[in-house]
Write a structure and sequence with these properties.
24% of the residues lie in helices and 34% in strands. The protein is α+β, with helices and mostly antiparallel strands. Strand 1 and strand 2 form a beta hairpin. The termini are far apart.
Length: 129
Amino acid sequence: MTSKAKIFILSILFLSLSACVSPPTNEDTMTDADLIRAAEQKESAPTAGEQQWVIGYHHGTEVVKSFQCSDLCPENTLRVIYYKVPTDATCESIGGVTQSILVPVAITVMPRKYCFPKVIADYWESYPQ
């Protein structure tokens, strides 16, 4: 076997192996059911300040859980689960629904827009906060 044939065979073998191994992605680590379970979950509110973290990915978009707290934590704390919209997209383009909800600020509340996953958007106000 010539060296060109060996290189050709090794190239085909390498391409075949690389096709079997896909790089990790952030696609769909959360299903619609996972989002509903997260929204329905009753949680203890933090005792101070705003806290947020990524809880997964839904259709490739980061899903954030955030606790919005006023000066009366934990009594006036709002838990929100929403999409983190990439800078080059809109809420609607990633399959979300933009809704304005009242969030605690100091001793009052103010409207703030969030991009909710469609599966929880219609019923957001009915989920436990």
